[in-house]
Amino acid sequence: MKPQKIAIAVDDLTVAYNYKPVLWDIDLAIPEGVLMAIVGPNGAGKSTLIKSILGIIDPIAGSVAIYGKPYDKQRKLVGYVPQKGSVDWDFPTTALDVVMMGTYGSLGWIKRPGKKERKTALESLEKVGMLAFKDRQISQLSGGQQQRVFLARALAQDAAIYFMDEPFQGVDATTEIAIINILKELRKAGKTVVVVHHDLQTVPEYFDWVTFLNVKKIATGPVKEIFNDDNLTKTYGINYKVSIQQ
Amino acid sequence: MSSAQIEIQLIASLVAIACAIPGTFLVLRKMALISDAISHSILPGLVLGFFITHDLGSPLLIVMAAISGVVTVVLVEFIQKTRLVKEDTAIGLVFPALFSIGVILIAKNANDVHLDTDVVLLGELAFAPFDRFLINGFDLGPKSLWIIGTILLISITLLIAFFKELKISTFDVGLATALGFSPVIIHYGLMSVASVTIVGAFDAVGAILVVALMIAPAATAYLLTDNLKRMLVLSVFFGVFAAIAGYWFAHWLDASISGSMTTVLGIIFLFVYLFAPKRGLISVLYRNKQQQVEVSLLTFLLHLNNHKEVNERHINHLHEHINWRRVQSKSVVDLALKNNMITIDDSIISLTEKGKNFTDKAIDYIITNDDSKIESIKEDFFLFRG
Question: Which of B24, B164, B169 is the best substitution to test chain A (most A C-beta atoms within 10 A)?
Answer without folding.
Answer: B164
